[in-house]
Amino acid sequence: MVKIFDYFFKKEIPILMYHRLIDDKKDIGVHTIYYEVNKFEEQLVYLKENGFKTITFKDLKSITKEDKKKEKYIILTFDDGYKDNYKIVLPILKKYNFKMVLFLVTDCEYNKWDVEAEGREKEKRFSLMNKEEVQELIKSGLVEIGGHTSNHLDMPFTEKSKLKEDLIFSKEKLEKLTGEKLVSFAYPWGNNDGSSKELIKELGYKFAAATESGTACFSDDLYEIQRIGIYSKDGIDKFKEKISGRYLFKREKRNEMKKKRNKIRQIL
């Protein structure tokens, strides 16, 4: 497979992370993972007008070095499988002929992991798609389905045998639904450890996405791919910065400098 990253130019294919789109203020949640539909469409217009091409993880195997030189690639990912992904996201994807990757929780009817949370603020209840709605996304040819456990498990804190059973169950369920082998997975909350990553490899996934963990270059570790979250406060200027291909390298550098300053403060 092509090596995606060029160390000299310090640039990477941006992989964006979304969760929910809203078209009504009543759907604003406690957490900032929602995004207004008009702002999302503004982003897609910008991508279209500036020659970006949306791809999926499955597409990566056919991308050549020459392709990378002449194309501006970007990967749009959505986590969990909220009902708005069918009602709002799919029509917009069709309008612009854009692709996305959906990391789907298989056995929840709503976001129970946030609604029933302990030790932190509870989220409002938001419905997830049903089987028929997911099938409509698949039929569009614009959506790659990826794994996300059956119940949004916190993988490092789940007993290994139980976790493996869940991963096998949810993967088989999605493969039956899609009619093809899954290649991509996303860790719920981005939480992962060595054991989690080994299980994902063992089950045959080729890519695993985190959130802010991993290096700026995802080809350094295909089982801890760092993504760029798009949150409710992000405007178009912030979006342009995040899709520049250099955003993660800047963030990585800031984090390194922060660690150095903290060490100096400890010494002093």
Kindly describe this structure:
This protein is of the alpha/beta class and 268 residues long. 38% of the residues lie in helices and 15% in strands. The chain has nine helices and ten strands. The protein has helices at residues 37-49, 65-70, 84-96, 112-115, 131-139, 160-178, 194-202, 236-242, 247-267, and strands spanning 15-18, 20-22, 34-36, 52-54, 72-80, 100-104, 143-147, 184-186, 207-209, 228-229. The strands form three sheets. Strands 1, 4, 5, 6, 7 and 10 form a six-stranded parallel beta sheet that branches. It has a two-stranded parallel ribbon with strand order 2-3. Helix 1 packs parallel to helix 3. The longest helix has 21 residues, at 247-267. The radius of gyration is 18 Å and the shape is globular. The protein starts with 14 loop residues before the first strand and ends with a helix. 34% of the residues are buried. Mean pLDDT is 92; it is low at 1-9.
Gyration radius (Cα, Å) is: 18 Å
| Separation of the first and last Cα atoms | 48 Å
Global shape: globular
Helix-and-strand structural type: alpha/beta
Mean pLDDT: 92
Strand content: 5-15%
Order of helices and strands: EEEHEHEHEHHEHEHEEHH
Percent of residues in helices comes to: 25-40%
- The total count of strands amounts to 10
Largest pleated sheet: 6 strands, parallel
Oligomer: single chain
* Low-pLDDT residue spans: 1-9
Write the layout of secondary structure elements.
Elements: E1 15-18, E2 20-22, E3 34-36, H1 37-49, E4 52-54, H2 65-70, E5 72-80, H3 84-96, E6 100-104, H4 112-115, H5 131-139, E7 143-147, H6 160-178, E8 184-186, H7 194-202, E9 207-209, E10 228-229, H8 236-242, H9 247-267
Parallel strand pairs: 1-5, 1-10, 2-3, 4-5, 5-6, 6-7, 8-9
Helix pairs in contact: 1-3
